[in-house]
Each structure stands twice: as structure tokens, then as C-alpha cells.
Amino acid sequence: MTKGEFIQKANQIGFDSRVFSLDGEFPSAGGWAVQNLMGGWKVYCVERGEIIDNTVKWFSSESDALEYLYDFYKKLRLKIDSQKLNF
Q: Domain-by-domain residue ranges, the chain?
């Protein structure tokens, strides 16, 4: 998956672009980041300016990192949507 494909697919399922960064910068209000580091790709969550340790995942390619983040958010979105139906 390319960055462009990720952004397009993320927008389709309502993944707000203000809560992810694909250039390794911390999202300003917290959220998810994808960073090229030491020959690999790191995906992690940031809260209050700090990386949440148990969210860090490493990948050998940018495409795999973006697929992971998209799939993670899609599953989360489905869970949230199903909970709304139970109210």
C-alpha cells in the first residue's frame, strides 16, 4: 500500500487525517505515526507527546506498515460501530 492509497482508504472509513502522521512526526493532538527508522518502518501511537510502548510495531516495508495501521483502524472502527448499534 502506498501513502496515497492509505490516505484514500482511510478517508473512506472515516480515519481522521489529523490523528495520523505518515512522515514520522508526532501527530499534534496525539494519534498514530509511521516512521522510517534504521532500515525499517515503525508504527506507534502517541499520547500527550509520548510514545505508548505497547503500541510499537516494526515492519520491513512501508507498505506493510501502512497495511497494519489501516487494518488496525478498520477493526477498531468496526468495533466502535457495532457498539453504537447496541445502545
A: 3-85
